[in-house]
Specification:
Blueprint lengths: L14 H10 L2 E7 L5 E7 L1 E2 L4 E6 L3 H8 L2 E9 L1 H4 L5 E13 L2 H16 L1 H13 L2 E15 L5
Antiparallel strand pairs: 1-2, 1-5, 3-4, 4-7, 5-6, 6-7
Helix pairs in contact: 4-5
């Protein structure tokens, strides 16, 4: 029987399961280190290309300052259906620790920003939203995974 309250080897996701969930999920939580050592944690839209996470951040985001000073990052994507549907509904999570790289390449910024908006909002809304978002000034954060910690509480019963 799989644990319903902790990650185990039996309920870990396979690389294929990780890839499938990351390609369909839209919302993650991003953690970076502030200068004082405290964690800065926010929800964020992301794109997963099968090997790296890519995020499009507005010029004023605190994460950019944090990552320029310390590129270590954690990103978490999860779903807990137990809250609405009870214990049998299960929960899953993908936690990834990695290293972030910042880019101001205009072509990359436009591509990642548009792709992320389409994934999150759909094509029609992304078309309307892309230019206003681009006007803010953007930086792309590419996260290269180093350590994975995953679970699906309904994977093994």
């Amino acid at each position: 029987m799989s644990s319903k309250s902790t990650a185990t080897l039996e309920n870990a996701l396979t690389p294929e399961e990780i890839d499938t969930r990351l390609r369909s999920a839209t919302l993650a939580r991003l953690a970076s280190f502030r200068a004082d050592g405290m964690i800065h944690l926010t929800p964020i839209w992301f794109d997963w290309n099968g090997s790296v996470f890519q995020l499009s951040l507005g010029a004023g985001r605190v994460h950019l300052k944090n990552l320029a000073a310390d590129p270590r990052v954690t990103i978490l994507v999860d779903e807990d259906s137990r809250l609405q549907h009870g214990l049998a509904a299960g929960a899953w999570a993908i936690e990834c620790r990695g290293i972030a790289e910042l880019s101001n390449d205009e072509t990359l910024i436009r591509d990642v920003t548009h792709r992320t908006l389409v994934k999150a909002m759909g094509a029609a809304d992304a078309e309307q939203y892309t230019e206003p978002v681009m006007a803010e000034g953007r930086t792309i954060v590419t996260i290269t995974p180093k350590i994975w910690h995953t679970w699906d509480y309904n994977k093994v019963d």
